[in-house]
Design a protein that fits this description.
Oligomer: heterodimer
Structural class of chain B: alpha/beta
CATH class of the largest domain in chain A: Alpha Beta
Largest interface: A-B, 30 and 29 residues
CATH architecture of the largest domain in chain A: 3-Layer(aba) Sandwich
Shape of chain A: globular
Structural class of chain A: alpha/beta
Number of helices of chain B: 22
Strand content of chain B: 5-15%
Shape of chain B: globular
Strand content of chain A: 5-15%
Strand order of the largest sheet of chain B: 9-8-7-10-11-12-13-14
């Protein structure tokens, strides 16, 4: 009777587990017996999971013992269910996310049969399989020692995975490698910033430093073969520079953006040293085929396109690939109050920002009778569009782009194509501009893309156009309806800030990496476990209290501590000065 | 002054060079209790340093091993706390940090003391250099061509003492003299034998005179004077010793790796002459009273770290690139060629035969080489008198000018009394140098012009800062006006910087000024304004003194 009631409640929470428990039988060595107080207790073989005298009082004591840990975080992970006394007591406080891991379904079944858990089950999540679920909050692990003793290997494995998860959430050292130049350069910067915002320690390798030298190769010789050879040597050099930097920085993960100057041989070195490497290929795989050469060397490959690309990646030997669409940077792409002069300078009825690809040149010519400004490079100044082209087709900085998005009544967003006259009828991925315009609070008309409706409610949050005639109509309509423009732009912005920022993308990326079995590199021995450090230092000591601020980091080293010390601004504490001293001693020592 | 802490976490030679300070403190404050904080790697020498009341040994390497190699941050942290507890057992009236690294600066800030002199950090972690002579010390690196002061004298100035007992000091036990006599007798060396010690090593390869040259010199010394040769050194000199023995015709007494510091000091004391590169044993020999010849090569500048005592000799290259900068990777070490067996033998010959000689005739043998003899000047500081009369160059001329001006400015002496400065040029320099270059037309015109401009800028800056300091000192200062007036100050400072960088002889002035600015602490507007005003005032006085020195040259010529 109790079992049926419990299962009914569990079905609402986790039907798969409920079904599994219905099918589970309790073996003979799992016995529920009465304790001295009459409350049931559980015996598994020779191990008694709860007190045979008073399991309720014992559970109260267990909760009391773990009170400090419990109070310090919004989520707790409990190792072992038993008959659930300790969990019931803990859940009484309310307000916490409680995840209970219990690998033995026979124990869960026994609990369901003998204890009324109907009030408890809606407040907790029970995990009995090999998957580690999403835990959104920072968490502490509480051991139910008799339970962990029953399945020591499982809980050892689980603890390690949770430690990695904790690290993945906030405490990774990540090296972001950007390209020498190109569109993915700014994306690399946004990724680095987002990862920092998520609490990770980030080293952004900005290879734009080499741009002048790299592009200068064209001027050295007109012989194409020689140019190619020099470029290859250049990439070999920058590639080795990344490896050298890795050896110095010791990242837990390397994230390379499209066009990052990393050769296959360098990526092999990363693999030999077991440094996990991820690649975010933020380009059209049909248009840029170089991915085939590097993809097999990466542990994790991320694309902005769904569908057929995944089959090709599989054929190329890529094991872990996932779809991560582009996004906006909330700090870079924002609403701005513009001065009248700026509105005059950057504003127009319609505007377009981007390079003068073939399809854009022809399509935009059809809008020439509007008050249109075109910003960006690679435009033909001898074309009819020339009177619309701003700054003679010069490159536009992000700061100006944001102003243009803000100042334009309608921002035209036409995805590039080198071989369509206007819109690519089979276009799939969504470009960064879509998110950036929205994040700036700008109104846009965008060409229809197959993946757009996954991200926005077309017609409510974003307006698409199908062809020239369609866009001309919509331009006229929305120029006449500024309030409607503003409402759509607002909805679009809210959606982007909620779901399509680089922070969300990086979270998804790291989650995928974790789910794919990520293991931190072996060289991280200098880094120590914060919890252990606090215990060693004494939780109540000045040092212990100071270290508590790193609890979410999982593991840290002296450099992490120094990175957080705000030297030069506020007075340093005694503890901070000693850490500073240790850091300086280490520097002098390494120099020698 | 009751409790003084001296921090010196650097090498053995540097520790020995701290002894004049310790002596000076003891003379000036007879009851003072002196604590010396040292790096465990160099603690052995401290047994022989006199007047130390308490020695604290910091195992820096061990601590780093704990928290870095063994990955135990907490244990490392606690080890530092332990050493801090030991250091801070008492509160000091004065802490002097003679270590110039950033880690020592941080450590200094953790010490319980009423006053700090040396590198430290302020409450927010900004680097600060406390005391004018410490700022001068840091100035030596960018402006060393013009530096006239020995490291020991800079130390003495930082401590604000002037020891009557001159030179370095180490106290050896009587037993060690007996040991030395016994060991030498076992090798057939009598008390009457001429004993010459050679130290083949140095901290870096470029600072080492070749072992082969030492070997050929030893052969000639043995042949000419019947000298007995001993080699001293540690394990790092083993290979050099082997090389020496494979070349020389004599059988030297090779003590490399065979002595502790006590025994080494005893042996050096017995030597009649000790010839060495820039090394710790050079300073030990100087401290125990043995005449030394210092071979000064590459980046080693004898004026900074040469033998600190009366009557020692330095042989140094007289080539334009000497001394080279720190951390340079010289591909043609010409200094090892210009100092050769012939001229060094000739010098040793003079030292042995003539004992006290005041000049060497300039001949082809001394081309590209200069020999100096150390002596204590009337100002109480060491100087190195050139023995071969050669043409005075701008570096040396300005170093003498700085010797006069810095003593007045940094010691806050009466700057109006410049007679001594004039006399220097009139009476001394012409004895040591060929001053004909000074009579070359327009010889100092550029520098003189720059100095006048610099003085003008200092005057403008001083005028502005005086007004600002006056306003800032009012109960309710007009901050808007101060801000507006202060806006001109960075422009003046930029111009001062330009002159400093474009006229190398004036660079030390600018660097001192800049370090002074970096040393300003606190956020109180009135105090900051007043301190900045003082910096401009010092700059003006300093440059005015220098102008007068240059003018005195003109006066003399006239």
């Amino acid at each position: 009777m109790i079992f049926k009631k419990n299962i009914k409640v569990l079905e609402l929470q986790d039907p798969l587990l409920a079904e599994a428990l219905v099918r589970t039988t309790v073996p003979d060595d799992v016995k529920v017996v009465d304790s001295r107080t009459g409350a049931p207790t559980l015996r598994v073989g020779n191990i008694i999971l709860h007190s045979i005298y008073d399991p309720v009082s014992e559970a109260e004591a267990w909760v009391q013992y773990n009170r400090e840990k419990f109070d310090s975080v919004p989520a707790v992970v409990v190792f072992g269910f038993g008959l659930g006394y300790h969990i019931r007591d803990m859940s009484a406080s309310g307000g916490k996310e409680i995840i209970v891991f219990e690998p033995r379904k026979d124990i869960l079944r026994a609990a369901m049969e003998h204890i009324d858990l109907t009030a408890l089950l809606p407040k907790i999540k029970i995990v009995s399989g090999p998957d580690v679920p999403r835990i959104n909050n920072s968490f502490e692990i509480l051991d139910h020692k008799p339970s962990t003793g029953l399945s020591p290997e499982y809980f050892k494995w689980l603890r390690a995975r949770l430690m990695v998860l904790r690290k993945m959430k906030k405490g990774l050292r990540i090296m972001v490698v950007g390209p020498i130049y190109g569109g993915s350069l700014s994306i690399a910067g946004y990724c680095a910033k987002a990862l920092k915002n998520l609490g990770h320690t980030v080293d952004f390798l900005d290879n734009s430093f080499y741009k002048k030298a790299f592009l200068g190769i064209d001027k050295i010789t007109s012989n194409q073969m020689h140019q190619d050879e020099l470029r290859k040597m250049f990439i070999d050099f920058t590639s080795e520079a990344v490896i050298a930097r890795c050896a110095d920085y010791r990242p837990d993960l390397l994230l390379a953006l499209a066009q990052a100057p990393l050769s296959g041989s360098s990526l092999m070195k990363l693999r030999e040293n077991r440094i996990p490497a991820a690649f975010w290929f933020v380009e059209d795989f049909r248009f840029r085929a170089y991915w085939k050469e590097v993809a097999p060397f990466y542990d994790y490959f991320f694309t902005i396109q769904k569908g057929p690309f995944f089959n090709q990646l599989k054929d190329a030997g890529v094991k872990n690939a996932a779809y991560i669409p582009l996004a906006a940077s909330a700090s870079a792409h924002r609403i701005m109050e513009l001065l009248p002069g700026e509105l005059e300078k950057y504003g127009s009825d319609i505007s377009f920002i981007g390079a003068g690809y073939y399809n854009r040149r022809s399509f935009l010519t059809g809008l020439i009778d509007f008050d249109m400004k075109i910003w960006g490079s690679e435009w033909d100044m001898n074309s009819p569009l020339s009177r619309c082209i701003q700054r003679s087709g010069a490159w536009v900085e992000t700061a100006d782009i944001v102003k243009i998005f803000n100042a334009s009544k309608i921002n035209i967003n036409l995805h590039s194509s080198a071989y369509h006259d206007g819109i690519d009828p089979y276009g799939d991925f969504v470009n960064p501009r879509t998110f950036e315009i929205a994040a700036c609070g700008g109104f846009q008309l965008v060409d229809r893309r197959s993946e757009l409706s996954d991200m926005f409610r077309v017609g409510e949050e974003i307006i698409c156009f199908e062809n020239l005639s369609d866009i001309r109509k919509k331009i006229r309509y929305f120029l006449d309806h500024p309030d409607e423009r503003a409402e759509i732009a607002l909805r679009s912005r809210e959606r982007v800030l909620k779901e399509h920022t680089y922070e969300r993308r990086m979270e998804a990326m790291l989650r995928f990496i974790f789910d794919s079995g990520y293991e931190p590199p072996v060289w991280n021995t200098e880094i120590e476990d914060v919890e252990h450090m606090i215990e060693t230092a004494g939780r109540q000591s000045e040092l212990g209290e100071y270290l508590c601020r790193y609890i979410d980091k999982g593991k840290i080293c002296i450099d992490d501590i120094i990175g957080k010390i705000d030297a030069g601004k506020e007075p340093l504490s005694y503890v901070e000065k000693i850490f500073l001293l240790m850091h300086e001693m280490k520097k002098v020592y390494l120099k020698r | 002054m009751k409790e003084v802490l001296i921090m010196n976490l650097t090498r053995m030679g540097d520790l020995i060079q701290t002894t004049p300070v310790i002596i000076g403190l003891r003379e000036k404050h007879p009851g003072v209790h002196i604590t010396l904080l040292v790096n465990s790697a160099f603690a052995e020498i401290c047994k022989f340093i006199p007047y130390i009341d308490r020695l604290i040994i910091f195992d820096i390497k061990g601590t780093i091993k704990t928290f870095y190699n063994d990955h135990d941050l907490i244990k490392g942290f606690r080890q530092i706390e332990d050493i801090l507890k030991e250091i801070n057992h008492v509160e000091y009236d004065l802490t002097i940090n003679f270590t110039h690294s950033t880690d020592s600066a941080v450590l200094c800030s953790l010490i319980r003391t009423k006053e700090i002199r040396g590198a430290s950090i302020d409450e927010a972690g900004h680097s600060i250099k406390r005391h004018p002579w410490i700022r001068y010390f840091f100035n030596v690196i960018p402006g060393r061509d013009y530096n006239p002061f020995h490291l020991c004298d800079m130390h003495v100035k930082v401590a604000e003492v002037m020891p009557c007992q001159k030179g370095l000091a180490l106290h050896l036990s009587e037993e060690i003299n007996v040991w030395v006599r016994t060991v030498l007798a076992e090798h057939g060396i009598r008390d009457s034998d001429l004993l010459i010690g050679l130290q083949l090593g140095a901290s870096a390869e470029d600072k080492r005179w070749p072992a082969a040259s030492f070997a050929r010199l030893a052969d000639r010394l043995a042949e000419t004077f019947g000298a007995k040769i001993i080699l001293t050194g540690s394990s790092s000199e083993r290979e050099l010793g082997n090389e020496f023995e494979s070349i020389t015709k004599i059988r030297p007494l090779n003590f490399i790796e065979k002595t502790n510091l006590d025994e080494l000091a005893g042996l050096l004391k017995r030597c009649d002459l000790f010839i060495s590169n820039d090394t710790g044993p050079l300073h030990i020999a100087t401290a125990v009273g043995t005449t030394t010849i210092n071979i000064s090569l590459a980046s080693v500048h004898f004026r900074e770290t040469g033998p600190y005592g009366d009557g020692h000799y330095v042989i140094a290259p007289d080539v334009p690139c000497y001394p080279c900068g720190f951390n340079t990777d010289c591909k043609r070490p010409i200094c090892k060629e210009v100092i050769n067996t012939d001229n060094l033998f000739d010098l040793v010959d003079k030292v042995i035969r003539e004992k006290d000689f005041s000049s060497i005739d300039n001949s082809a043998l001394w081309r590209d080489v200069q020999v100096y003899r150390s002596f204590f000047e009337n100002d109480g500081l060491i100087d190195y008198r050139p023995l071969i009369k050669k043409r005075l160059n701008k570096e040396v001329l300005f170093s003498y000018i700085y010797r006069k001006s810095c003593l007045k400015i940094l010691d806050k002496e009466d700057v109006n009394d410049l007679n001594d400065g004039f006399r220097y040029f009139a009476e001394k320099l012409h004895l040591f140098y060929d001053l004909s270059s000074l009579n070359t037309k327009n010889y100092l015109e550029d520098e003189f012009d720059a100095m006048l401009r610099l003085r003008g800028l200092a005057e403008i800056g001083l005028a502005k800062l005086t007004l600002i300091a006056l306003e800032a000192g009012k109960p309710v200062p007009d901050t808007a006006w101060i801000k507006e007036t202060w806006a001109d100050v960075p422009v003046i400072e930029k111009e001062i910087e330009n002159i400093g960088y474009t006229h190398p002889p004036l660079k030390p002035l600018f660097i001192l000024f800049r370090y002074g600015q970096e040393g300003l602490e606190g956020r109180d507007l009135a105090a900051m304004s007043e301190e900045t005003r003082m910096l401009y005032s010092d700059l003006k006085k300093h440059i005015s003194l220098m102008i007068q020195c240059i003018d005195s040259r003109a006066v003399n010529r006239a």
